[in-house]
Fold:
Amino acid sequence: MTIKTIPTRPIEGQKPGTSGLRKKTRDFMVRGYLENFVQAILDAADLTGKTLVLGGDGRFFNAEAAQTILKMAAANGVARVIVGQGGILSTPAASAVIRARQAAGGIVLSASHNPGGPEGDFGVKYNTANGGPAPEAVTGAIYQASLHIAEIRKLEAPDADLSRLGAQALGPMTVEVIDPTADWVALMERLFDFDAIRALFAGGFTMRFDAMHAVTGPYAKAIFEDRLGAPPGTVINAEPQPDFGGHHPDPNPAHCADLMALMMGENAPDFAAAADGDGDRNMILGRGIYVSPSDSLAVIAANAHLAPGYSEGIAGIARSMPTSRAADRMAAGLGIPAFETPTGWKFFGNLLDAGMATICGEESFGTGSNHVREKDGLWAVLMWLNVLAARGESVAGILRAHWAKHGRDYYSRHDYEGIATEAAEALMTALRGRLTGLPGVEAAGLTITAADDFAYQDPVDGSVAELQGIRLMFGEEARAVLRLSGTGTEGATLRVYLERFEPDPGAHALDPQAALSDVIAATREIAGIERHTGRAGPDVIT
Ligand code: VG1
Ligand code: CO
Structure:
């Protein structure tokens, strides 16, 4: 075998501590850039003689990157790479495959919900043997390795044939091409009552699932249409495209305007959902109603016992800090622990591994459980279908009953995108600098009662994550959180999370923006959003 070495170049853009590298596709296509990051992974993770899983969401450059990674794995002593046919694996499916086949780790090619294509974004993420995003200790080691790369080892060989299922040799390494849906579908069949969901569809229940021209198309067709008997056409935009059809594959009301319009209109089906580029996010809709991700987490926690995989109950519920506190009330009611973690799925990994939490969720359309170590968009859809089948009620009926019983957490997130990095940092620094002076400050008729910068100590390994977002409390009921996005690739994005608990929402069936208007105004004023960013309002409201 011939191994060629390529001169290294520094990896600009990898932040120590982030689970992977997410950059413009053009950056990844510069010779040596992808190679440098992959070599850092291979150096840091030591996969010699071990099995690695590889797959991505099919976006532009997925196929080329997969071939490069295979040749580098072969030259770096990896024994076997299990790769999804065509180089495809959704993020949750990659997690399922790593776990089912006891691989040492996996490389996932995706920039998740970011747009794809030559002018879009690409990403590479390393997952560890538990199937989850690498924790900070591992990403730190990868970052350190990236600073000291001696050589890039890559096999000179023809491309592997990723269209052909089964094993083939690539130099000294085995490449095993698998059906990207099989392991994950088998897992879903163990967790959910497929017979009950099949009966639901047979009884005329109607659904629309928008795969957004991204990776979930084949998975959704395999499950909903092939196995559960939903009529053809239930899954729309089902053909994955390298640029996601030119759309932003982010399942939220702003980017799924057509689906929202359908569900709020006269001819709405009973149920609708959508997933993101790599299949780990989900949006849930009922006829005439939008389910906020925070509410979805709470409803799932309250009803999970209706699904066979969770019939014994759940051990604990974990949510990211900016996610509404609706889930905490569920945990209290069930007498199980609630965990509040920093933003990012990797923080759930230890809780899931230790059996302390069973269900996890983020306000950013992420929901999942201990079945894998990533969030799982279609899992959430199946969970809702299982609950709908078991309860025989509508989505709106279930949600309204939930609010009537437990109260409602009005919730919204305001994103200010593509602002100057210096301006965003100045805003956060200024707010951080006056945290202790904030209690007592009044704005828009509200008074701040507490303010802090969220820090988290992992209860399992004791590691500490600081500066995870500024929390402003307006009494017990209302809260605002401000943090900067860690996933953007252009300038900075300021995220402002707003919520208010209403114990008796029956009396006021308000639009969240109306219910939160004073919290929104107070936060804008106190943080000086317009003064710092020059923006009179957010770019995206979810
Ligand atoms: C965003 C979300 C966060 C999520 C992350 C990855 O991060 O807010 O909740 O975990 O994306 O999601 P940020 O730093 O931009 O706010 V994705 O679907 O990569 O899978
Ligand atoms: Co995603």
In short: The mean pLDDT is 93. The chain has three domains: 2-180, 184-406, 408-541. The pocket of cobalt (II) ion (ligand 2) is lined by residues 91, 112-113, 276-278, 280-281 (CB under 6 Å). The first helix runs from residue 25 to 29.
